[in-house]
Specification:
Layout: H1 8-53, H2 57-81
C-alpha cells in the first residue's frame, strides 16, 4: 500500500472546506429554525388574540345582567302599551 503524503497547505484547504460545509449546514438549519419560530410566534399571537376576545366570567355576568334588565324593562313597557 502506497502512503500519500499530505502537505500542510492541502490539509489546511481540506480543513477549511470542511468548516465551510459545516457552516453552510448550520446556516440552513438556522434559516429553517427561524422560519419555524416565526410561524410559532405568529400562532401564539393568534391564540392570544382569541383568548383576549373571550369575555371574562365577570364581563359575561355583567352582560347577562344588562340583558335581563333590558328584558324586564321591555316587558314592563309592553304591558303599559297594551
Amino acid at each position: 500500500m502506497v502512503k500519500k503524503k499530505i502537505t500542510i497547505d492541502t490539509l489546511a484547504r481540506m480543513t477549511q472546506d470542511e468548516f465551510s460545509r459545516v457552516g453552510e449546514r448550520l446556516d440552513n438549519m438556522e434559516t429553517k429554525f427561524e422560519a419555524r419560530f416565526d410561524k410559532l410566534d405568529s400562532t401564539l399571537k393568534t391564540v392570544l388574540d382569541v383568548v383576549l376576545e373571550i369575555p371574562s366570567k365577570k364581563a359575561f355576568e355583567r352582560l347577562d345582567n344588562k340583558v335581563q334588565t333590558f328584558d324586564a324593562r321591555l316587558t314592563s313597557i309592553e304591558r303599559k302599551v297594551k
